[in-house]
Model the fold of this input.
Amino acid sequence: MEYDRGGLGDPIAYALWVPGWGKGSWRVSFAAGLKMPIGSTAKRLSTGRADAGGAFAVTGEVGRWRLNFNGGVIVPGNISFLPGLDIAPFAGVAASAGYRFTSTSLWVQLNWEQSAFRDVTQTPLSDDVHDVSVGVRFPLARSVRGYVAFTENLFAFDNSSDIGFHGGITWRTKAD
Done:
């Protein structure tokens, strides 16, 4: 029997606010979001409940270094197709530093996050996650940059993937 998992998942609406504070080399921003449960729970495209969250970030530059600190919290709804699994609100923080060369930049990020399952199980799935990511950004075209990175779980190897590889493309809509 083939299982059809095609379809739309739950959309997320969010707002970002960047006040005028720190118009120089340091900036702060705030974000809040809401996941609306409209996807199919039978296809596992939706948890069947709304989730809400909020985050902040402080970013600054010191010479060729870019520093970032951010944190947030998510308040998840219960998962309707897993009755009795009451997941808990969870928080996370990250700090990163990047160094700009002439056309590329190298960065390192440290990440900590709580497990949403910490109150419902005593297995490794309930352990906090501590990751380190290392990456490089490089130019591809005039306003287009690519990046590659890897993430390593530092302590609890049974609650998330041990090593993750990432890649992507970013672009600017206006020149600096």
Remarks:
- The chain has a mean pLDDT of 84.
